[in-house]
């Protein structure tokens, strides 16, 4: 069973990578198609050379930046990107433990849903990017407080 773990992990990660690129390429044209094609090539190279998986995700993000697609496609592509990276980098551990862990799945789906909800409100708050780092620091302090004893 352990001998099948690596090929299964690579196959599943490749499927998620191609879904990520495909969702990023929907409705794109011009330079965005080139970025999406390079991302697809990086997914293929990522099967052998793991750091290319990160490059594939970055090229998919570039495709989104160029095309300005639907928020739903961006959310689905981001979810596939998270699954792609988790599956691709889980080769050193028990694949089923990392890929099928509830904390990983709940976090990925939860952040995707939170992003969709956040983009559904047409708020015009120019000061929000200034408050976000302070809020993240506050959350970090609250989360680590029980462990700092």
What is the SS-derived class? mainly alpha
Q: Distance between termini? A: 43 Å
> C-alpha Rg, in Å?
18 Å
Q: Count the strands?
A: 0
Amount of helix: over 70%
Strand content: under 5%
Number of helices: 7
Low-pLDDT parts are none
Q: How many domain regions? A: 1
H/E series, N to C?
A: HHHHHHH
Query: Average pLDDT value?
Result: 83
Query: Tell me, what's the shape?
Result: globular
| Largest sheet geometry | none
Give an overview in words.
This protein has one domain. The longest helix has 24 residues. By secondary structure, it is an all-alpha fold. It is built from seven helices and no strands.
Essential attributes:
149 residues; globular; mainly alpha
How are the SSEs placed, and which strands pair?
Layout: H1 2-25, H2 31-46, H3 51-67, H4 71-89, H5 95-99, H6 102-120, H7 128-148
Quick overview:
The protein has 149 residues and is an all-alpha fold. The protein is built from seven helices and no strands.
């Amino acid at each position: 069973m352990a001998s099948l773990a690596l090929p299964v992990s690579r196959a599943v990660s490749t499927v998620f990578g191609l879904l990520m690129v495909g969702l990023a390429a929907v409705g794109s044209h011009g330079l965005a198609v080139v970025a999406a094609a390079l991302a697809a090539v990086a997914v293929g190279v990522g099967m052998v050379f793991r750091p290319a998986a990160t490059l594939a995700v970055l090229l998919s993000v570039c495709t989104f930046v160029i095309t300005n697609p639907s928020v739903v496609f961006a959310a689905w592509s981001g979810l596939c990107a998270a699954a792609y990276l988790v599956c691709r980098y889980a080769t050193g551990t028990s694949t089923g433990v990392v890929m099928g862990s509830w904390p990983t799945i709940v976090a990925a789906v939860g952040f995707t849903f939170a992003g969709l909800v956040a983009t559904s409100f047409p708020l015009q708050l120019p000061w929000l990017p200034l408050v976000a780092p302070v809020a993240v620091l506050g959350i970090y302090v609250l989360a680590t407080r029980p462990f700092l004893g």
